[in-house]
Design goal:
There is one protein chain. This protein is of the alpha/beta class. The chain has one domain: Rossmann fold (3-Layer(aba) Sandwich). It starts with 5 loop residues before the first strand and ends in an 8-residue tail after the last helix.
Length: 148
């Protein structure tokens, strides 16, 4: 599924560039889309302007979601997603954040996160993490039909 889009919701440009570099270094072929705040994430996922053209802004296979975001937090994005009908409610969300606080982990899972990952400090570990995410969420995980 190398054509399956991954949506990265990350406000820190350096973190996004590092993640993109790790994905390339791991030789993953999935196209990436990026938004830098929670409000844009909701607009992207709902197909609201300027994201209504799904050929340019495809529905992602998974969302990699940071928690600390401007405008709407990752928690708010997650709560919004799980309150939607059909495909958006079932869209896999992998929280990828720097917080390892127990309260954040519990809240993310309570709101319906499918996985919670803490950003590693070393680039080599980020490469390994991207490979694990790809292996499990893209290649192995059985998804519900997101088109109905």
């Amino acid at each position: 599924m190398s054509d399956a889009t991954l949506l990265v919701v990350e406000d820190n440009a350096d973190d996004f560039l590092l993640l993109r570099r790790a994905i390339r270094h791991a030789k993953l072929q999935n196209p990436l889309q990026h938004v830098d705040d929670g409000e844009k994430a909701i607009r992207y996922l709902s197909g609201a302007p300027p994201y209504e053209d799904r050929t340019q802004w495809p529905m992602p296979l998974i969302v990699l979601l940071d928690l600390k975001l401007p405008r709407r937090s990752g928690f708010e994005v997650l709560a919004w997603l799980r309150a939607q009908e059909g495909l958006l409610r079932r869209l896999p969300v992998v929280v990828l954040t720097s917080s390892d606080q127990d309260k954040d982990i519990k809240q993310a899972y309570d709101l319906g996160a499918n996985s919670y990952l803490v950003k590693p400090g070393r680039f080599e570990d980020l490469i390994k993490l991207t490979l694990l995410v790809d292996t499990y969420w893209v290649l192995c995980n059985k998804r519900a039909d997101l088109n109905s």
